[in-house]
Amino acid sequence: MGGKLPRVLAEARNAIRAMVPRGASVLVACSGGADSLALAAAAAFLHRKGEIRAGALIVDHGMQEGSNRVAQRAAEQCRTLGLDPVLVLEVQVAGGSEQAARSARYEAFEQGLRQTGSDHVLLGHTLDDQAEQVLLGLGRGSGTLSLAGMPAARGPYLRPLLSLSRTEIEEICRHESLAYWEDPTNTDPRYLRNRVRHELMPVLRAVLGDSVPAALARTAALARADAQYLDGLAETALEDAVLPVAADRPAMALTLGLERLRAMPGPLRSRVLRLAVARLGAPVPDFERLNALDALVCGSVSAGPVQLEGPVYATRVAGARLPAGARAHLRLDATALPHPGS
C-alpha cells in the first residue's frame, strides 16, 4: 500500500458507500482473483473507518487441484486487510458443471449470511464481465432482460464494481500490494464465456474501438431500466387478467381472461404470459413456446394444450366450463399433461 490514492480505488470505495447503508454488515465474496481482492480492499478501508462492518467469505469448490491452498491464501489476504470475520466454506459441486458450481456457491453465500447475520454479500463483477454477459444474452436471443446483464443489486447481493474495468481493478491490486490468483479455467475454451472474452471481444475492440465494453455495459443499464418498468406493468396486468379458479380445479392453476390478454399490446402480453408460467413454477418459456402460447391466446385453430417446461401446460377453454361472465379464458395448469381427448 502507499503512494497517491488511485482514482479507481476512490471510485470503488464510493461505489460501496452508495450501495451499502452506513453501519450495515457485509461479506465480500472473495475468490482470490483480482476483482474480488480489489473489492475486499475497498470494503476493508470502510470497515477500518467504522462506516460499515465487513467480513469475507471464500468458497472452495474443490474442482481444481490445490483449490484449498488458493482459498487459504485468499483468506490470509482478507485477514491482512482487516476484514472480520473471514469464512472459508467447502462445497460439493455435483457434476462439475459451471451452473452446478454457481448453485453451490450461492448456497454457501446463503449459509454465510445466516451464520454471520450479515445484510449483504458483495460480488466483484466488473464492467468487462457485464459487457460479456450482454453478448451472451444477445447470442441467446432471449429478449430485453437478457440484454440487461447482471443487476447491480438483487436481494442481499450487491455488485459495486460494475462501472470499473478489469484493467482498473488490477490497478487497485497493485496499489494495495495484493497478489491475486489467475484462475486457469478463465482461459479454457470449453466455456462459452471464455470464447467471448478471448476471441469475440478482441475482434469487437479492433472494429468498434476500445470503448465497446463500456458501451455494452451502458446498453445493459438502459435495457434493465426498461425491463424493470415493463415487468412492473406486467405484474399489474397479470393480476387484472387472473379470473377466479373453480373449486374443482387444481390449486396450482391460473385462469386468465382471453379478452383482457388480447387487449394488451403484444410486448406487454408476452411478459404477462411469462410471469404466469413462472408463477406456476416452470422455467421462463423460450421464444418458440412463448410464440405458441401467444398464438393460443390470439385464436389459433388448436385450443391446445401447449406443453411448457416442467409439468405446466396451457389450454384455451370455452363454453360451460367458463367462470360466470367470461366468454373465453386461458388455463395454465401445473399438473400432468392430459391424454389426448381428455
TrEMBL record:
InterPro entries the UniProt entry points to: Rossmann-like_a/b/a_fold, TilS/TtcA_N, tRNA_Ile_lys_synt, tRNA_Ile_lys_synt_N, tRNA_Ile_lys_synt_subst-bd
EC number from the UniProt entry: 6.3.4.19
Gene: tilS
Catalytic function, reaction form: cytidine(34) in tRNA(Ile2) + L-lysine + ATP = lysidine(34) in tRNA(Ile2) + AMP + diphosphate + H(+)
Ranges where the tRNA(Ile)-lysidine synthase substrate-binding domain occurs: 258-309
Protein name: tRNA(Ile)-lysidine synthase
Residues reported to bind ATP: S31, G32, G33, A34, D35, S36
Keyword ATP-binding among UniProt keywords: yes
Chief place of localization: cytoplasm
Signal sequence extent: none
